[in-house]
Design a protein that fits this description.
The complex is a heterodimer of chains A (679) and B (253).
Chain A (H helix, E strand, L loop, with lengths): L1 H33 L17 H31 L11 H13 L2 H6 L1 H26 L12 H31 L10 H19 L8 H23 L4 H11 L26 H9 L5 H5 L11 H15 L26 H4 L7 H5 L6 H13 L7 H12 L8 H11 L10 E4 L1 H6 L1 H17 L3 E2 L9 H5 L3 H17 L4 E4 L2 H8 L10 E4 H7 L12 E4 L13 H10 L1 E4 L27 H10 L5 E4 L2 H12 L7 E4 H6 L12
Parallel strand pairs in A: 1-2, 1-3, 3-4, 5-6, 5-7, 7-8
Helix pairs in contact in A: 2-8, 2-10, 3-9, 5-6, 6-7, 7-8, 9-10, 10-12, 23-24, 25-26
Chain B lengths: L1 E6 L1 E3 L21 E3 L1 H17 L2 E8 L3 H11 L3 E6 L8 H15 L3 E5 L10 H9 L3 E10 L3 E7 L5 E7 L2 E5 L11 H7 L3 E6 L29 H14 L5
Parallel strand pairs in B: 1-4, 1-6, 4-5, 5-11, 6-10, 7-10
Antiparallel strand pairs in B: 2-3, 7-8, 8-9
Classes of the chains: A mainly alpha (679), B alpha/beta (253).
Chain lengths: 679, 253
């Protein structure tokens, strides 16, 4: 292991040294030309008149460069346009799209926020490029006598100096990024070194140097002409490299960010009777094509992926690149299956079964990948789309998965227990049946209705509601929301569940729903929309936070580390409400990865029901992280997280922290009430 | 191989059963129905035999309109055709009566093999398949866990008591009643449901019921019994008595 690291490092060094040598030789040649007339002036030197030969050479060079660019870019555009139309696509809401474009593209907000140092370096290169657009245009217009920026004019001089500042920032930033990629070598960029990135970084550096050089030479001399040609040639070499490399994101990603599907983890409705999900190339839609060609291979998706981090086959970046190479090879009309058990070649990593069914079904749908992606790729519709293709056709044969689907078909709950168990629980707790007179319908969910720990949470939350004097009732019969079926790609079961749930709410005339389960909240409020509009639903953290002033402030001084559930945080954007509740119960402690960077518990995407995982357990990794904060209590807000951690903490040696839901954290401080019969 | 699967629709396992005013049948309103579990395994066995050996799987079900959903589910899982024998008076027909209705269809279809569950989840008589075989004059075997096609006919695995199995060779055509748990059931898929819409479902009227040979007197819910008995003696004696009672009276040991 260490030897391999050493070797990799030394390989990196060799390459670095080679590049530095090349740069030095280049600089020497330039130096020889410059040595006679080197001096600094605050104005950019003008190259003077161009001969006809030079103009002709420029035209030929530009022609070749543009032709080479389109030789690759043309087919890519063709693939994107010939992909299946996204039937549900609409530009609405245009305001949100413009804001995303402004914030994520122009301000580079996401890039900087999620990876500050390299993000800022990238932002400087991007802004530098924007500032440089006019300079480059002017540069190429020069030989034709069409230059519009004159160093002699005030405006021109100002702009050239302005661009020079950016050129400096770009040069420094690209050096930083180069050092990061070739020396620091974060694993997320891939196991293999990307030579092309080195070449591109060098070209960008050269562009800046050749521009800045013109401040050190006199007007009209051979030196400035040499610099001009150097700058031009770099541009002409750079252009065709764009569509051949991940630098295609320069062209595509602004569009991708603007056009991405509205909503987080939005799973599009199946478009026809022949549509069962992503089975083959013919099912890949234009948005997916555009997105996979926009991939910049930064590996943020993989860096945050709970599956990739615990030794699973799944690598979200390789899924995106896998679809991309599929489209390159087979095209968007192909009938060849997307999922394959064969080894898939990758530019960045050794070949592996990146597109296998196993990989597709290892996703916890935590959404970190989609949240992190700086170029607007929406991984979840792709991964869930692949699952739909496998499940809706019956190609996915998994003992646990089949058991789950049959349980949902027959018993109507994911745990496969008799519905009578729920009736008994309701009776024992004295929960009133919702009859239209109560304010809230308390949705129990499978965990709340059948799981022992989930029941404790629901019972405690009911105590909180009673304490607050909020009237509530539960549905007489309740079936699963279909969340695990939805995420595992079983549209038949999901539709049955959604329709049955919508009907139950309508029949009971429910107006407002509250639930302890973020998965239920998300599925009812969002995924069910394909079949109808459910009554307004909120998570119990939102409900309790609204009434927090009437809930007791506990001065226990206990430290409580709060774990953000994926389906509450990234999916619903609820981060502060549960924290307000935790803060009333004790001293809030943050885990190293929290808020939108929270690490999954491993239960989502139906995986809670799929049996033993390969490699390390996601829940154990996260539980160890929470324990390491030294907090006395682990606070959760999702019954699935709770059950995963219960198991993980029990194997974590003596005296693991206590595990409590936010409802339990609140209820423990309530005065005890008379036991039964209270309504 | 042409396989005919006889399936029955029964109330869902968790259904709250009520008795009609007449006291002769269950109250069918407000009940959800599903495929009888051993029949689901019979269908699965038929589908697997077809996948291995080719042929056709036809499902038939007697009952009112509601059984259509169960037939559609069978088509979605892979059956090729369905036959719905419309009858609203199953409660008034005894085993022989139902078997006669099924036999009519079986004669027309002339399959190589007839499969059905070993018993129904609701009545639990376990006779329909056997009587049907008798009416058709073909050999049958019950409690089948596994079916294998041989050059001359079938080799089947029967479940006996106490973990014993019996292997039987038999000729075709034949009838088998299938035990639950021999295979893994498959889930219905969206593609299956879409395909099912294009498959044929034939609806036939059942012949009028003749007077049954078995008369149904009364249907009632299980009556709970509570019995308390105090055991006396030394702790050792009480323990010995308790073990004896648990073994021979309650039969849980």
């Amino acid at each position: 292991m260490r030897a391999a690291l050493k070797e990799a490092l030394s390989r990196g060094w060799v390459r670095m040294v080679a590049l530095v040598c090349a740069a030095t030789v280049g600089a020497r040649i330039a130096g020889a030309v410059l040595s006679s007339e080197i001096h600094f002036s605050a104005t950019l030197a003008e190259p003077g008149k161009f001969s006809r030969l030079e103009v002709a050479l420029l035209l030929i060079g530009a022609g070749i460069s543009i032709a080479l660019f389109f030789r690759r870019f043309g087919p890519i555009l063709c693939i994107i346009f010939r992909s299946k139309k996204d039937k549900d696509f609409s530009l609405h809401p245009i305001g949100r799209r413009m804001w995303d474009f402004f914030w994520e593209v122009l301000c580079q907000g996401k890039v900087i926020r999620q990876r500050p140092l390299p993000g800022l370096a990238h932002a400087f290169v991007f802004w530098g490029f924007l500032a440089f657009a006019l300079v480059s245009l002017n540069h190429l217009a020069n030989p034709f006598g069409l230059a519009f920026l004159r160093p002699a004019s005030y405006v021109g001089n100002f702009y050239f100096l302005f661009a020079a500042i950016w050129a400096l920032l770009v040069a420094v930033s690209i050096t930083v990024l180069f050092v990061r990629r070739f020396l620091a070598r974060p694993i997320w960029l891939g196991e293999k070194l990307s030579y092309e990135s080195g070449v591109i970084a060098f070209l960008i550096f050269l562009l800046m140097v050749s521009y800045l050089g013109a401040f050190f030479v006199g007007d009209g001399g051979a030196a400035v002409k040499a610099l001009w040609w150097m700058h031009t040639l770099t541009l002409l070499v750079f252009l065709p490299l764009i569509p051949h490399t991940k630098h295609l994101h320069l062209v595509l990603s602004p569009l991708t960010v603007f056009l991405k599907r509205d909503g987080f983890s939005k799973i599009p409705p199946l478009s026809s009777d022949e549509d069962f999900g992503l089975i083959a190339g013919k099912d890949v839609t234009q948005l997916i094509s555009l997105q996979v060609y926009s991939c910049v291979e930064c590996g943020r998706c993989t860096e945050h992926c709970p599956a990739s981090n615990t030794g699973k086959v799944l690598n979200p970046k390789e899924i995106v690149l896998g679809v991309q190479s599929y489209l390159n090879q087979s095209g968007p009309a192909s009938d060849a299956p997307l999922l394959t058990e064969a080894l898939v070649e990758s530019r960045d990593n050794p070949p592996a079964r990146y597109m296998s069914m196993e990989a597709a079904f290892e996703c916890t749908t935590c959404g970190s990948c989609e949240y992190q992606c700086p170029v607007g790729i929406q991984h979840l519709p792709i991964i869930i789309g692949l699952r739909r293709g496998a499940t809706n056709t019956g190609a996915w044969e998994d003992t646990h998965g089949t058991k789950l689907f049959l349980a949902l078909e027959k018993q109507g709950n994911a745990l496969g227990l008799s519905a009578m168990e729920r009736d008994k629980f309701i009776q024992k707790q004295g929960f009133p049946i919702f009859d239209g007179t109560q304010e809230y319908c308390l949705w129990l969910g499978c965990m709340g209705g059948y799981d022992p720990k989930g029941r404790e949470i629901v019972a405690d939350f009911a105590r909180v509601m009673r304490y607050l004097g909020t009237s509530f009732g539960v549905l007489k019969k309740e079936k699963c929301t279909g969340d695990p079926a939805r995420r595992l790609g079983n549209d038949l079961v999901f539709q049955t569940m959604a329709e049955s749930g919508l009907k139950a709410f309508e029949a009971a005339k429910v107006q407002k729903i509250v639930s302890i389960c973020p998965h239920c909240v998300r599925t009812i409020s969002n995924d069910w929309r394909e079949y109808g509009i459910a009554p307004e639903i909120e998570h119990h953290s939102e409900f309790m936070a609204r009434h927090k002033d009437r809930l007791p402030q506990q001065n226990s001084g206990e430290s409580i580390v709060y774990h953000d559930p994926c389906y509450l945080g990234r999916y619903r954007d609820v981060y502060e409400e549960p924290r307000e509740i935790v803060a009333r119960a004790g001293e809030l402690v943050e885990a190293p990865r929290s808020h939108e960077r929270s690490f999954c518990c491993g239960a989502g995407g139906g995986l809670a029901f799929l049996g033993e995982e390969t490699g390390e357990r996601v829940s154990h990794v996260r539980a160890a992280e929470l324990v390491a904060t030294g907090a006395k209590i682990v606070g959760t807000a999702c019954p699935f997280c709770n059950t995963m951690f219960r198991d993980a903490l029990s194997s974590m040696g003596d005296a693991p922290p206590q595990l409590l839901d936010i409802a339990q954290l609140t209820a423990r401080a309530l005065p005890t009430m008379q036991k039964t019969g209270e309504r | 191989m042409k396989i005919l699967v006889a399936i029955k629709q029964v109330p869902e396992r968790d259904a709250q059963i009520g008795i009609t005013a007449s006291g002769r049948w269950i109250d069918e309103s407000d009940l959800n129905y599903t495929i009888n579990e051993p029949d689901a395994y019979a269908l699965e066995e038929a589908l697997q035999l077809k996948e291995k050996n080719g042929g056709e799987v036809v499902v038939m079900c007697a009952g009112p309109e509601r059984v259509g959903s169960t037939l559609r589910e069978a088509l979605a899982k892979g059956a090729d055709r369905a036959i719905h024998i419309e009858a609203n008076d199953l409660g008034e027909r005894d085993t022989l009566g139902v078997a006669q209705v099924l036999a009519e269809i079986a004669k027309d279809e002339a399959p190589d093999l007839i499969l059905t569950g070993l018993q129904s989840d609701d009545l639990g008589l376990g006779q329909t398949g056997v009587v049907l075989a008798e009416l058709l004059g073909i050999p049958h075997a019950t409690l089948i866990m596994h079916v294998e096609k041989t050059a001359t006919g079938l080799r089947v695995k029967r479940e006996l008591e106490d973990g014993w199995f019996q292997y039987v060779e038999m000729p075709l055509p034949a009838l088998l009643t299938i035990q639950s748990g021999g295979n893994k059931l498959r889930y219905a898929t969206l593609m299956g449901i879409k395909k099912a819409k294009t498959k044929e479902t034939k609806t036939l009227q059942a012949a009028a019921a003749v007077s049954p040979s078995i008369a149904l007197e009364r249907v009632y819910l299980p009556e709970k019994q509570k019995e308390t008995e105090m055991l006396t003696g030394t702790p050792a004696e009480v323990a010995a008595k308790l073990v004896e009672k648990l073994k021979f009276e309650v039969r849980v040991l």
